[in-house]
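Input sequence (306 aa), recorded before submission:
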Amino acid sequence: MPVKIPDTLPAAQTLTSENIFVMTDNRAAMQDIRPLKIAVFNLMPTKIATETQLLRLLGNTPLQIEVTLLRTASYEPKNTDKAHLAEFYKTFDEVKEDSFDGLIITGAPVEQMDFEEVTYWKELTQIMKWADKNVFSTFYICWAAQAALYYHYGINKYPLDKKMFGVFEHKRLSMTHKLLRGFDDIFYAPHSRHTEVKVEDALACKEIEVLSTSDEAGLYLAASLDGKRVFAMGHSEYDPRTLETEYLRDKGLGKEIEVPCNYYPDDDETQAPCVRWRGHSNLLFANWLNYFVYQETPYNLEMLKH
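Predicted structure, token format:
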């Protein structure tokens, strides 16, 4: 799926060097097809790294995608150059009259705060409400998944005794759900979080289906019955070294942090991490794009509002 992004976005050069198909605006204009319009509300502090990770996954299937990057207006990001934000990102006010085939809302390092205490909580709830009428399917990642389950269904999150940090084994709970089409019975995904949504709370909600859990990491994948909302508690989009970057950062700050589970061979941080989640990650995003967005979304996006 060629992903349509500006030539000057830093991710463009990275993805091209990795043999990921990216498309310039000029080339896209010459194709007589309607690209899927996907918005990414990027709440991660490492915005350039996160946008590259997600664009890598969006660019790995056979349709054209037009990506709109969104940032918070109620909170000024501190770790990304203002010029980068001004050139490549929009705020909700700039797109609220538009419609999108899909929306991705990322995680954020605020899970130890009550939802209502987060500076941009009101803005996020506006976007989640807007998405119900202006977006065909929304993919919520990590903290955003917790926030959406709380906002839409009143399902709470709970603090963990220690950070859920590493790469964990997960079970496929459905053999027929389209999001899991092609999945192995057992697969792996990274987690990096201080809170959890309890599996039993998700199972008790009749409006969603629990699709995957982990004996160690708990709830992983769930979706609303109509497929309009998909929830992923982990970070399948992570690069091979993302957990390592977080580990070394916290270790350097003197925080209590353990070596990521099942990440380094023999838990030896001098060795290169073992990547065992890439295949599942690509399949997860490809299935969402194909079965929950492309196959279902109307050609005329204005029909979403009716």
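Checked by second reader. Residues 259 and 268 are 8 Å apart (CA to CA).
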